[in-house]
UniProtKB/TrEMBL annotation:
Pfam families: AP_endonuc_2. SUPFAM superfamilies: Xylose isomerase-like. One of its GO terms (molecular function) is isomerase activity. InterPro entries: HyI-like (IPR026040), Sugar_Epim/Isomerase (IPR050417), Xyl_isomerase-like_sf (IPR036237), Xyl_isomerase-like_TIM-brl (IPR013022). Residues 21-241 form the Xylose isomerase-like TIM barrel domain. Belongs to the hyi family. Keywords: Isomerase. It comes from Nonomuraea typhae. This is Hydroxypyruvate isomerase family protein. Coiled coil: none annotated.
Length: 253
């Protein structure tokens, strides 16, 4: 098991381009990010500066979101018909970053429901976009991730169970679409976490303790037991203003 730190939720007291080095200084060899740019298709300077910051820090980019609307309070664009062009204009940019940095996982947040539009239409748009994204990701040796969130914090997000996410993954019809197993969100929804981790389509794991979304040890989840024997990257996607990573030593015991 290897821990990587999500620098879009941790180290946010530092400018974006300083976060990979801060993660390295804290002892991490891997980082992941939500979409790190303001523009849908950032200019070469923005992409190059981001990629250089990761390279110069000597860390692995483990995961990267495709263009998302998290800063605007959203939960992704893949199912949103009005954002189809905006999203598709971004796919090559995200895949290019992944190819340059050896990133093997690109997260495709499904998107909140759009009131007044057919849910069936939104789901069809999502599957089309996922299939296109998967083909572009495959060209650089990456997988596309589909994530289930919890309905308490994301009430308009339709994928709130392992089954819901797996149905979408299978519907996309591409061999490199995988499940992002976020134990915090699944725990909030009462899912069987052991079964979720054992699912053959798991492509990446993220953790936070529950309730509270704090660092391991601040809630009720037996994360050490759950992850015992898991040998992939585990993304730290929790809230901790104090940046206390002392739990990792205890976690490994």
């Amino acid at each position: 098991m290897k821990f990587d730190v999500n620098c879009s939720i941790l180290f946010t007291d530092r400018p974006l381009l300083e976060r990979p080095a801060a993660a390295k200084a804290a002892g991490f060899d891997g980082v992941e990010f939500w979409w790190p740019f303001a523009a849908a298709v950032p200019g070469d300077r923005a992409v190059d500066a981001f990629a250089a910051a990761v390279e110069d820090a000597g860390v692995q980019l483990v995961g990267l979101n495709f263009l998302d609307d998290i800063p605007e309070g959203g939960r992704g664009l893949f199912s949103r018909p009005g954002d189809r062009v905006r999203l598709r204009d971004n796919l090559d940019v995200a895949a290019g970053i992944a190819g340059r940095l050896g990133c093997r996982a690109l997260n495709a947040l499904y998107g909140n429901r759009v009131p007044g539009l057919s849910e069936r239409w939104q789901d069809e748009v999502a599957l089309e976009n996922l299939a296109l994204a998967a083909r572009k990701a495959a060209a650089v040796g990456a997988v596309v991730l589909v994530e289930a969130l919890n309905s308490y914090e994301s009430p308009s997000y339709p994928l709130v169970s392992v089954k819901g996410a797996i149905d979408v993954i299978e519907g996309a019809g591409e061999p490199n679409v995988r499940f992002l197993c976020d134990l915090y969100h699944l725990a909030r929804m009462g899912e069987d976490l052991t079964a979720a981790l054992a699912h053959p389509l798991v492509g990446h794991v993220q953790i936070a303790d529950s309730p509270g979304r704090g660092r391991p040890g601040t809630g009720e989840l037996p994360l050490g037991r759950l992850l015992d024997g898991y040998d992939g990257w585990v993304g730290l996607e929790y809230k901790d203003p104090g940046l206390d990573f002392s739990w990792i030593k205890e976690f490994a015991q």
